[in-house]
Design brief:
mainly alpha
Amino acid sequence: MLRTILAALALSAAALPAAAQSMSAKDPGRAFMEAIAMGTDTDRDRRLAPAEMRVLATAAFDLADADSNGVVTRTELEAADFGMNALAAHRGRGQAMETATALMFAFADRDHDGSIDGVEHAAAARLAADLADTDGDGAMSYAEFYDGYMFNMAYRAALHY
């Protein structure tokens, strides 16, 4: 189900700049991340438990693994559109998005072999979630997901929010 949500968000990314202009929200990037959080939160408790985050991480990995060979290269990660590329292009922040992607890739590529396998990706996602869980309850609130989950922080920085 989450893979379907991610795919739909990615496919609708081209419409994001126009939609962002019509949104009353000050921060369309936040609205987008909140939509991802809501799609991930299968039990609707407004908290992202480790099991829910594993589903999100797996869906993101599968979306990035364009050739389905079980590893994600930096080129694949740069080409993967998780929904923010169109907004970055609209804002003239494409280079910043490339830099954020390079940093996220380096964070996940623990063995420095130029690719991220499923184990590395899962470990990076788990570490990012643990760091974001500021109250230590074992799950992320939507605010912790938005404000502290490293991958979201990188995208926000790239988009200059």
